[in-house]
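testing teh design pipeline on a random one, pls ignore if ur not involved
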């Protein structure tokens, strides 16, 4: 039973092969045991290291154990096949009297499959580590970009906006002054209107870059500000919970893109924005009752948002059957985690995903209002 199934190798006291069974012959790539019987054991199958360098018999622990008549077990070694290739094996050697002298009986097992599996596991671990590094780097880039957005908005508010406000106040004081020729008064009034318009435009720009409401009030407040400015009713069902800044920013811009596209394409009467959460993810849904048939386009708003979410290991799904409205679902991890599942297929899209240009997005609710008597922007 042993000689037929388990590779068996007998070595006499002179380290010559006395017996080898068929299983051992097959593993070592020989045609028959006649090619091995009588040959020096070490010099036949153990004469080189895996790197190709010579392996002298005096360095071989199997040879030493044979000479001393001691048992030995080796969990991993490499024997040389007939063609010169190496095969990984585990070996168990025990002393055995052969022809009146002490020799060794060796059983061994082919470890090729387990070595290949171990190598593949290591390769996957390296690939996973590299992928984790890439994902962490992408997340840091997103976070840095968001912080830069916030800094730009602060600079606009504290710099250009404040400067324009001072201009408005100076012009108002000028109008309240003494006698001013009518032509000059008209010019000052036009300058006042232009400055107030510039404040409005600057405020819209700041909103598109990064709304201050999002920074200070969180996702619920920022989305509600978007809803208040929308051209159709928007139901917001978002708790006042706070999330990591990168998560809030990604979710906010998904909503901004969605609401803008609803207004442009969907012919909807209502929109519903809601979030649910788990211990690991924020789930955002934007549903409208419009005509459906949305088709995201390369380089469009949703494509950019999908890339942004992917940098956070998030996913974006669009379902938009004709006549059934458009349904957007974003899943955003709250912290770094394992690799995400395969990308979700986009279901029957038609028009560009719901995208707000930067100048259309909601933003800095702290922006300076026009001075008394100036023009005010009407809310839809």
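output:
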């Amino acid at each position: 039973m042993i000689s037929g199934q388990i590779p068996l190798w007998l070595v006499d006291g002179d380290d010559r092969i006395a017996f080898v069974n068929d299983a051992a012959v097959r593993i070592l790539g020989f045609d028959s045991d006649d090619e091995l019987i009588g040959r020096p054991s070490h010099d036949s199958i153990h004469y080189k290291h895996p790197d190709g360098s010579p392996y002298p018999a005096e360095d071989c622990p199997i040879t030493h154990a044979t000479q001393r008549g001691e048992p030995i077990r080796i969990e991993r070694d490499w024997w040389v096949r007939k063609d010169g290739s190496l095969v990984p094996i585990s070996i168990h050697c025990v002393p055995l009297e052969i022809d009146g002298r002490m020799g060794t009986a060796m059983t061994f097992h082919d470890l090729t499959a387990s070595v290949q599996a171990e190598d593949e596991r290591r390769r996957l671990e390296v690939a996973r580590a590299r992928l984790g590094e890439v994902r962490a780097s992408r997340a840091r880039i997103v976070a840095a970009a968001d912080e830069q957005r916030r800094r730009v908005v602060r600079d606009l508010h504290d710099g250009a906006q404040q400067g324009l406000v001072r201009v408005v106040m100076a012009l108002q004081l000028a109008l309240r002054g003494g006698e001013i020729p009518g032509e000059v008064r008209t010019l000052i009034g036009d300058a006042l209107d232009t400055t107030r318009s510039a404040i409005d435009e600057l405020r819209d720009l700041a909103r598109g870059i990064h709304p201050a409401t999002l920074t200070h009030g969180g996702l619920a407040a920022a989305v509600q500000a978007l809803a208040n400015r929308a051209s159709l009713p928007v139901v917001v069902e978002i708790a006042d919970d706070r999330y990591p800044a990168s998560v809030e920013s990604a979710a906010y811009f998904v909503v901004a893109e969605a609401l803008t596209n609803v207004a442009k394409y969907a012919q909807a009467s209502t929109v519903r924005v809601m979030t649910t959460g788990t211990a690991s993810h924020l789930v955002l849904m934007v549903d409208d009752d419009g005509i459906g048939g949305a088709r995201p386009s390369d380089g469009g708003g949703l494509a950019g948002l999908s890339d942004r979410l992917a940098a956070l290991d998030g996913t974006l799904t669009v379902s938009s059957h004709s006549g059934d409205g458009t349904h957007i679902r974003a899943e955003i991890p709250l912290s770094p985690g394992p690799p995400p599942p395969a990308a979700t297929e986009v279901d029957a899209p038609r028009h560009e995903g719901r995208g707000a240009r930067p100048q259309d997005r909601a933003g800095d609710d702290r922006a300076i209002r026009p001075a008394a008597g100036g023009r005010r922007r009407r809310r839809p």
